[in-house]
Design brief:
By secondary structure, the protein is an alpha+beta fold. Helices cover 23% and strands 6% of the residues.
């Protein structure tokens, strides 16, 4: 929601913090910030912000734990997604969900509460390893 106030403004250097640019953006002279095209509202007594895209999840805001502190310095999607999900850039490690289950337990008695799936690379140049698990 705060992005509405900064829509169209140039991305401050402090955000990129000297990080290299990707091949997709290396030719850009300008890096304008863009607000979401979707609306956000606060929900529940907790006041968590949710997008209009997930109204049912938003209706359960007070029953959820929202983690806002997960970040990574990886700029390419594949290692960044892996890092955010597992805490490590190489795939095959236990996920955040598995650690939460380890700490909090599970209500499920018939199925495993988590599964670690290692990547299988197809060899196709257009395939991404994490999408082919």
């Amino acid at each position: 929601p705060a992005m509405q106030a900064h829509n169209g403004e140039e991305l401050p250097d402090s955000v990129r913090n000297g990080q290299r640019l990707t091949g997709m953006t290396s030719g850009q002279d300008s890096f304008p910030m863009a607000q979401s095209i979707f609306k956000f509202q606060q929900h529940g007594e907790c006041g968590h912000w949710f997008s209009e895209l997930i109204p049912h999840i938003a209706s359960n805001a007070d029953d959820m734990c929202v983690i806002k502190s997960v970040n990574t310095e990886a700029i390419n999607h594949d290692p960044a997604i892996t890092y955010i999900c597992t805490g490590h850039q190489l795939p095959g490690r236990a996920s955040l969900g598995s650690w939460l289950n380890y700490g909090l337990g599970s209500l499920n008695e018939n199925l495993p509460s988590f599964v670690v799936m290692t990547p299988s690379w197809t060899g196709r140049p257009d395939a991404q390893a994490l999408y082919n698990r």
